[in-house]
Design goal:
This protein has about 120 residues and is of the alpha+beta class. It has one domain: Ubiquitin-like (UB roll). The chain contains two helices and five strands; from the N terminus they run ββαβββα. Strands 2-1-5-3-4 form a five-stranded mixed sheet, covered by helices on one side. Strand 1 and strand 2 form a beta hairpin. The protein starts with 8 loop residues before the first strand and ends in a 9-residue tail after the last helix.
């Protein structure tokens, strides 16, 4: 029933190098919480990819950068399933440019359709 403990979400994070690691998070965790947790619990076998600060860790879900305040719950991720995200180190997020963005999306390299 409704009295279940808060569900946890299993995230499999993939580095650019192809290494993966699974972590459990709660739906209330935001992208920046996840970055900090991963930074604080950096896997031994990710040593070569170690970053200097959790602030440059970015999550990519379905090809889109997640802003730091986006929670897993807001993404409506499936409970009890493993959700795959990419973890990359980037100083800054690409600035959303409200003008010209539509034209860029039409001619963008991505063939996938983003339905907002």
């Amino acid at each position: 029933g409704a009295s279940n403990p808060p569900a946890s979400i299993n995230l499999r994070l993939i580095l650019v190098s192809g290494k993966t690691k699974e972590f459990l998070f709660s739906p209330n965790d935001s992208a920046s919480d996840i970055a900090k947790h991963v930074y604080d619990n950096w896997p031994m076998d990710w040593e070569e990819e170690q970053v200097s600060s959790p602030n440059i860790l970015r999550l990519i879900y379905q090809g889109r950068f997640l802003h730091g305040n986006v929670t897993l719950g807001a993404l409506k991720l499936p409970f009890g399933k493993t959700t795959v995200m990419h973890l990359v180190a980037r100083e800054t997020l690409p600035e959303p440019n409200s003008q010209g963005q539509r034209n860029r999306e039409k001619t963008g390299e991505s063939n996938c359709c983003v339905i907002l």
